Amino acid sequence: MPEKPDRLREEAVKHFNRTIDLMQEGKPEESLEALQKAENAAQEAKSDAILFHTLKARGQILQSLGRLEEALDTYVFSLKISYKLLSEDPGNELYKDTIRLNLNNIGNLGNIFQRAGNFILSKQCYETGLEICQKLLDSHPENTFYQMYAGNTLNNLGELLFSVGQIEEAKEKYEKALEIYEKLLQNYPEDTEYLSDKEMTLNNLGILFSQKEQKEAAKKNFKESLEILEILSKKDPRDQKLKEEISLRREKLEKI
What dotted CATH number matches 142-256? Predict the structure, then answer.
């Protein structure tokens, strides 16, 4: 006879709490075993809230153990489930929060893999996040989180492609990121985060055009990048590092 959902939820919570205790005791491997029991009970009980908490914890534990590919699989699994459920219940805040969390986790892993020189897994992270994010933007084109995530991930993917000599592919990603930032700044022209992100991508394009020996295009992007830095400096005149960066950029621009 199948167990009742209430009993299964209680069982899931019990195993989840045991997971936390084991983590605090410094026993991550045992905590994963307890977490698997919690996840199984949550799935049987059809409790999305508990299931997403267990998947979040599993990804974090695996990441802390350096088992990054397994952590990635967990975040992607959670992302795909939450995306499917959100499409069936578009107003559900739990699903929205879970999607945002998993997109960020996948993007962060992409950055970790990139720093470690793992091109394949880094690219996989960025492209997986972008695929889901683009679907979300198709139905929520004005959502600023999805726009920002897409812009930042395109920029990161551009940096990754540039680092392995895929110059034209990198250029395409940078230009798409720039389009997103420009759209955001049309609605929020004073937003320092959007300005900073646009500046970063303009500078990346300047570096790319310099490598291609396209001096005028490089100069144009570096100049626009510098103009944004000057705007940011006026907003925060006490930022000495920013002032130093502006001086360095001016010298660099004069030498082109």
Answer: 1.25.40.10
